[in-house]
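Quick start: what a row looks like.
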Amino acid sequence: MNHPKLLQWLEAHGYDSSMVIDANPGILEDYDYVWNHYSVTRRGGVVNLEPKKDAKVWGLLIEFQDPLLRAFDRSEEH
């Protein structure tokens, strides 16, 4: 996902995309994916990240304003 597609996704899901400051590809070293949470809303597993030596997680590094973080947390049942 690139920055324009992220903005489109946010708008399509009712989020204020103006709160996104920047988005770029990123790598998180010494972490790995774990499926250790169940989402009642999605009726399935949800991925989290945990420390793991020599592992890498590739993803999208997003800089955004705090209200959007709270919206993401609500959508992820936190």
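That is the whole record. The longest strand covers residues 44-64. Helices lie at 3-12, 66-75.
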